[in-house]
């Protein structure tokens, strides 16, 4: 590479570091005079790199917005960080538009890495393993994501065309509060002004989004991530489960996170009324009697689920006193699991 060409690329890298660079600073960094700096800037402009001149005592040059991305000058650490980020995003499903966009971007960065560094990156990628299976989620459209993010930033109402999980299509108006990535999917959450309720929509089910005139006031309450998680916990499902569990909210959350269950305090701190015991049930020992009077309070835990078979093992893993208020089917599953454990424990 000739020295002038190398200096032009160095100039581009300096401008990409951000802010306004004075001519004196650029001349010193490049080892040239001010006139040569201006000539190098003209070269970048001829290549459609959007360089802006800033007038004034502390003026100079900076990169401005253009109709396309200028060539990026990445350091080795930056290139590796971007490449690994693309791989991880594709693996977890947190990509937009199509998978090919991430793949082609990763391929371009990989292609221009110096050979020694490329070999080391290849070694990382070949040895890298994930504890979770690869996500196979529908990706949202990048244009829709950008429109919604813009609506969130400027508090603009937005009209969306949405398909629900039953396949019904409809137009909705939303005052968006935030965009949330959760478990491999993208969501937008906010207030539906028509019904005055919080709503959460999956972005991959949004077919169109457009900004509407006007603005709205900031929405009070939990942050967007908490709204999405609480929405999962209160969404309608086949089974509505109500439990009373004696323990702290932190203990319960280790097995029943906010996206699965809601945890609320019960009035008073006494033990709940126990389920009827059979006539031949043994008397509780002193440790059980102590447990009934001491320790943390009872909390109400509500879970909505399509299936119940996963809950008894979770309750066993919690190892906390609990009472099943509803449904009876869950109580029967818990008893069946306890019987299986007892039979297996007696085996020699």
Shape annotation: elongated
By DSSP (H or I, 4+ residues per run), the number of helices equals 12
Query: What are the segments in which pLDDT stays under 50 over at least 5 consecutive residues?
Result: 270-292
Instruction: Give the averaged pLDDT, no decimals.
Output: 82
Structural class: alpha+beta
The percent range for strand residues is 15-25%
Share of helix, binned: 40-55%
Give the C-alpha Rg. Answer: 30 Å
The H/E string reads: HHHEEHHHHEEEEEHEHEHEHEH
Largest sheet: 5 strands, antiparallel
- Strand order in the sheet with the most strands: 6-5-4-3-7
Cα distance, first to last residue? 78 Å
3D architecture notes:
The protein is elongated and about 85 Å long. The longest helix has 19 residues, at 328-346. A five-stranded antiparallel β-sheet has the order 6-5-4-3-7. Strands 9-10-8-11 form a four-stranded antiparallel β-sheet, with helices on both faces. A two-stranded antiparallel ribbon has the order 1-2. The model is unreliable at 270-292 (pLDDT under 50). It starts with a helix and ends with a helix. A hairpin with a 5-residue loop joins β3 (158-163) and β4 (169-182). It has 348 residues and is of the alpha+beta class. It has twelve helices and eleven strands. Helix content is 41%, strand content 21%.
Summarize the structure.
With 348 residues, the protein is an alpha+beta fold.
Q: What features would you highlight for this structure?
A:
four-stranded antiparallel beta sheet; 348 residues; alpha+beta; elongated; five-stranded antiparallel beta sheet; 12 helices; 21% strand
């Amino acid at each position: 590479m000739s020295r002038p060409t190398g200096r032009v690329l160095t100039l581009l890298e300096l401008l990409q570091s951000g802010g306004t660079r004075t001519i004196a600073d650029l001349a010193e960094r490049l080892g040239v005079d001010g006139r040569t700096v201006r000539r190098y800037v003209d070269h970048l402009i001829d290549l459609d790199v959007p360089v802006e001149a800033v007038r004034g005592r502390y003026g100079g040059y900076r990169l401005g917005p253009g109709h396309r991305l200028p060539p990026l000058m990445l350091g080795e650490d930056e290139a590796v960080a971007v490449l690994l980020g693309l791989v991880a995003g594709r693996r977890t499903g947190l990509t937009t538009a199509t998978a090919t966009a991430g793949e082609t971007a990763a391929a371009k960065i990989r292609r221009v890495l110096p050979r020694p560094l490329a070999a080391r990156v290849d070694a990382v990628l070949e040895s890298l393993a994930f504890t979770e299976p690869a996500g196979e989620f529908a990706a949202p459209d990048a244009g829709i994501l950008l429109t919604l993010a813009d609506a969130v930033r400027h508090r603009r109402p937005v009209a969306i065309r949405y398909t629900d999980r039953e396949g019904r299509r409809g137009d909705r108006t939303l005052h968006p509060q935030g965009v949330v990535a959760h478990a491999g999917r993208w969501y937008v959450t906010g207030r539906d002004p028509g019904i005055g309720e919080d709503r959460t929509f999956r972005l991959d089910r949004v077919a169109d989004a457009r900004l509407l005139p006007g603005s709205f006031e900031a929405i009070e309450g939990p942050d967007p991530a908490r709204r999405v998680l609480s929405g999962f916990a209160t969404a309608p499902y086949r089974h509505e489960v109500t439990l009373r569990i004696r323990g702290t909210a932190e203990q319960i959350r280790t097995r029943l996170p906010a996206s699965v269950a809601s945890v609320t305090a019960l009035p008073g701190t006494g033990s709940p009324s126990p389920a009827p015991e059979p006539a031949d049930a043994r008397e509780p020992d002193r440790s059980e009697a102590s447990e009934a009077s001491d320790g943390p309070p009872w909390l109400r835990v509500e879970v909505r689920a399509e299936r119940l078979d996963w809950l008894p093992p979770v309750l066993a893993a919690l190892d906390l006193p609990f009472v099943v208020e509803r449904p009876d089917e869950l109580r029967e599953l818990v008893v069946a699991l306890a019987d299986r454990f007892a039979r297996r424990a007696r085996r020699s």
